[in-house]
Each structure stands twice: as structure tokens, then as C-alpha cells.
Design goal:
The protein has four helices and eight strands. The chain is an alpha+beta fold. The chain has a single domain, classed as endopeptidase domain like (from Nostoc punctiforme) (endopeptidase fold (from Nostoc punctiforme), Alpha-Beta Complex), CATH 3.90.1720.10.
Length: 162
């Protein structure tokens, strides 16, 4: 695992500025998406291309370590993973889960689509990306890695990046 992470880190460093994202202080701004070095992402029917690209980007970071305050490309906290994944699709979100909730469109949990964000009762506490089939991708806590897990009752709020 350490060798795989080292190889990924080396690849990320060789990507240079392409992997670095500048984020505005607040608000959501959409810009044209660019294709990643890994190719294009297949669209999920009924889901925006940005949401599909963000899901693919986040899933590609499974196994990366959680580091508080990190926003990639080799380590993430929860909101940093969301911010980074959507930036790969050309959508810029703030680096704080509460602000991500505030800056997105609130939807019922029953309307979840891949790419939607899910939060606990206090949106400033945590955020994850719904990926479909009752699963989320998240950077959960110090000592854990980015992971795909089932969506649980911990998450009671949802929003869509618009």
C-alpha cells in the first residue's frame, strides 16, 4: 500500500500545476471542464457531466490518507475531497463543509443522484459525495483513508451542486 501511495504521489507531482487548484474565497463558480490526464468520464444518464466527473475523480482517490485541512491531490479532509473532486470537473466549491452546504441547492435525501453531497444534521461537521447504489465516497477522519461505504442514517441533509 505504501508503495502504491508513493507511486501515486510521484505521478501527482509529475502532473505539476495541472493538479493544483486555486479556489475563490466563497461561492460556487462553474467554468468549462477540462479532460483529465486519465481520460474522459462516461456520463451517467440523468446526472450532470460535472457530477459524473466529480464522482469519478473522488473514486480515483480511494486509499489516499485523511489529513485535516488537506485538499489533494494525495491527501484530503472531507470537504477537501469534495472541493478537489468538483474542481476536476471545473466547478469550484469552498473548503468547508458548512459553506459547501450553504453554496449548493438543498434537496430531499429521497432525491439523491450520483454527485450529490450528503451531510449530517450539522453540515459543518462532515460531507461526503453520494455515488449511487446507496454508497458514498468520503474522507472520514484522521487515521483513515478515502473510502467507499454505504450511506447511513448519520447523513440527513443533501444538496446538489448547481
Amino acid at each position: 500500500m505504501a508503495q502504491a501511495n508513493a507511486a501515486r504521489a510521484a505521478a501527482d507531482q509529475s502532473a505539476g500545476a495541472a493538479a493544483t487548484t486555486t479556489v475563490p474565497a466563497a461561492g460556487t463558480t462553474t467554468v468549462p471542464a477540462s479532460s483529465s490526464a486519465e481520460g474522459t468520464t462516461a456520463a451517467v444518464p440523468g446526472v450532470s457531466s460535472a457530477a459524473s466527473a466529480a464522482v469519478a475523480a473522488a473514486e480515483g482517490r480511494v486509499g489516499d490518507p485523511y489529513v485535516w485541512g488537506a485538499a489533494g491531490p494525495g491527501a484530503f479532509d472531507c470537504s477537501g475531497l469534495v472541493m478537489w473532486a468538483y474542481a476536476q470537473a471545473g466547478v469550484y466549491l469552498p473548503h468547508y463543509s458548512g459553506a459547501q452546504y450553504d453554496d449548493t441547492i438543498h434537496i430531499p435525501m429521497s432525491d439523491l443522484e450520483p454527485g450529490d453531497l450528503v451531510f449530517p444534521a450539522d453540515p459543518g461537521e462532515h460531507v461526503a459525495i453520494y455515488i449511487g447504489n446507496g454508497e458514498i465516497v468520503q474522507a472520514p477522519y484522521t487515521g483513515a483513508n478515502v473510502q467507499i461505504v454505504p450511506l447511513t442514517g448519520f447523513f440527513v441533509l443533501a444538496s446538489r451542486v448547481g
